[in-house]
Structures are given as structure tokens and as C-alpha cells.
Amino acid sequence: RALPDDIADLQRTRAATLPAWQRYALPVHLNGMPKIVVVMDDLGLDRRRTRETVALSGPLTLSFMAYAEDLGQQTGKARAEGHELMLHVPMEPGSTAINPGPNVLLSGMPADELRKNIAWNLDQVSGYVGINNHMGSRFTADTESMRVVIATLKARGYLFLDSVTSSRSVAHDEARDGGIPFAVRNVFLDHEDDLDAIRQQLRHTEQIARKTGLAIAIGHPRDNTVVALKEWLPSLKEKGFQLVPISAVVRVATK
User: Fold this and answer.
1) pLDDT 10s digits, 160-203
2) DSSP one-letter code for 86
3) pLDDT tens-digit profile of 208-249?
């Protein structure tokens, strides 16, 4: 486990010496139950659905769009409600017909320009533990570009969650080799925006957690997803699972 067991004490006494992902981690006491992480992406753009997501029982891991407005206010409210924060960074999708947003990270971009775009995204707000990719099926398959991103994250002390939007993603491999804390998404909850389908994906999340001890699920602020989570989240403890933030489960490769 990459996060120290005494992280709450370290945050109180030595916060300035901690890397950002530990400084802003949400302390939780881990028990022996299988762990589930629920990451909600695309937050901050649709204010109503963002508020409804923040109101869900947690701790959730809430990933806010880097280019959303009033990020400081929105993320502050989310943290006050007991959730952990991440930044959702736009990366090049597989199709040129899709617009991933401003200051997107593009494969083949000169390293200096890429670093400039990464910095713009990372500087939009503070208080988050790391980033995951918004779209990025093309970008996360680009080894050299991902190395630039990982090096920047390492210098700033952030973790990386690979959303795995492509089977060709090398992002988590580069994060591992680059020596930063990382994790990999297991389940997309709402690839199909249908209430019964989302419920099935939540059951699938439980199955993975029971089998392996950990499942990381990603959802989005959609009405059906919020309804399904509102039903499901309060049941986890009784079912024998522990809901934890992403910082509690990331790993750092030892060499």
C-alpha cells in the first residue's frame, strides 16, 4: 500500500513535506473487507448533476473537468461533503470528429508544447490527488507522450488512474515504470445509459471485488447513474464491502 497508515497524523504535522497525492488524500481506516472505489468523471460542467453527485454518500472519488468553471468553489464543496478529488484531463480520442475540450493533450505534440498543455490543466485548481484521462484512446497508446505526462505528474507529486479507454493503453505501464502511484479502472458503470444496465454493472463491480479484493468503477453524472448509486451505495457495508477513495488503493512499483 502506497499510502502510509498514519497519513492523517502526517497531514496534520508534516503536510508541506508530503507529495500532493498524500497531502490531499482522504484518510480512511482500512478493514479486511473487499475494497470498492467509485470514480465519477466529467464533473463540474453540468452544475445540477454535479451537485446531485456530490450529495451521494461517500467517500467517492470525484474527478472534475480541468476546464470547468468555478473549480475552486465546486471542488471545495465536494471535499467538504467527504469525497476525494481528482482532475479529469482531456486527452486525444481515437476519432478526430470528437472534441475532447480545450488544451487537450495530443499524441505527437512537441514535448515543450505538451508540457505547456499539461501545466495548464494541472494549474486550474488545487487540492486533488491526481488525474485520470478524459477520452484519450489515441493519446494513452502513445508511449513517448505518456512518458512526458508521467514525468510531469511525478515532479508535482500526483497519482494517475488509467481510465482504460483503449485496450492499447500504455498509460498504467508508463506510470508504473515512472515510479508514480497508479491504479487501473475495472468497470465502466454507464457505458450504456440504462438503469437496469447500470445496476448490472454495479453487481459486476461487486463480483470483481469479491474475487480479487478490489474493484475500481468509473461512472458519470447522469440521471440514471445517480439513481442507481443512491440505491446501491448505502448497501455496501451490509454486503461486506468497504467503499474507499482512490488514494487508499494505488500502488507504487518497487525496483
Assistant:
1) 999 999 999 999 999 999 999 999 999 999 999 999 999 999 99
2) E
3) 999 999 999 999 999 999 999 999 999 999 999 999 999 999
